[in-house]
Task: structure prediction
Amino acid sequence: MVPCLNEELTIGKVVDDFRAALPEAEIVVFDNGSTDRTAEVARARGARVVREKRRGKGFVMDAMFRKLEADVFVLVDGDDTYSAPDVRKLIEPVLAERADMAVGSRLAQFDAGSFRALHVAGNRLLTGLVNWIFQTGLTDMLSGYRVMTAELVKSVPLLSGGFEVETELTLRTLEHQFVIEEVPLPYYTRPAGSHSKLRTFRDGLRVVFSIVNITRSYRPWTFFGAIGLLFGLAGLVMGVVVIQDYMEDQFVDRVPLAILATGCMIIAFLSFAIGTVLNSVNARFRELAHTLRGRAGGSR
Ligand SMILES: Nc1nc2c(ncn2[C@@H]2O[C@H](COP(=O)(O)OP(=O)(O)OP(=O)(O)O)[C@@H](O)[C@H]2O)c(=O)[nH]1
Ligand SMILES: [Mg+2]
Result:
């Protein structure tokens, strides 16, 4: 599966390289109505071309996951930055049933110009945040080179439309208790004249929001606990001052501070309460999902 938007320079080579590396595979290019010759080139090289109306890599991946049937799914960008000859290394963990998803991690070995300024640091920061919140040990959460089982592709919903889709895919995969294995693979530079669709700050922010949103839904205790802790500590500090003030002469001089401390404490308790409620709701939903999967004859 190759998501493509205006990649006429590279798509031909990507299709050829993957045909050579994986002759048994069907190659499907998902195009968002490119204004260049992407679809034409892909078709001429023997790939099936599927058109997606909704613009955005996230929408395209949602369409791929819903429309295609296969035993094993390989996802790769159409900009010729990932290594086709290594595809079997990436398929191996899935075929050997060690993992439900194998991710080509780019941070082990990459060309000097392959990442733009800030992108390595940004990726490390975002991946680190996810590792911290979700207790994982990933090295490249944003890779576009992945191999997945059919079971995973058919059970992970992708709702985000843009470049935050890799984040969403990674986090939902973990939430569904699928196993991810990373394989260090090379990452090459986009050839001269071809253009990235990624906008550093806009898409970086969208990734951050997507991490925050998914944390709120999947780890409510972490999310609301953090808010509660913040307000609780603030309320405590202010409350201690007010209590000391009262101890001195049995009279509260700092009434506004007392009210503020109370407000903070109420917010803190509310946050903890919301976190606890959502945590229980989540737990019951997980039970339900587990049961349903068992009834459907799933092997998990
Ligand atoms: N169909 C479709 N494909 C897209 C869209 N946006 C990006 N793509 C494809 O998704 C792949 C990744 O996009 P890139 O622009 O290379 O983004 P990136 O690899 O995250 O960023 P760089 O490191 O700058 O290359 C490429 O094959 C794009 O053609 C879109 O809106 N529709
Ligand atoms: Mg790219």
User: Anything to note?
Assistant: Residues 77, 79, 81, 196 surround magnesium ion (ligand 2) (CB under 6 Å). The longest strand covers residues 101-110. Residues 220-295 form one domain.
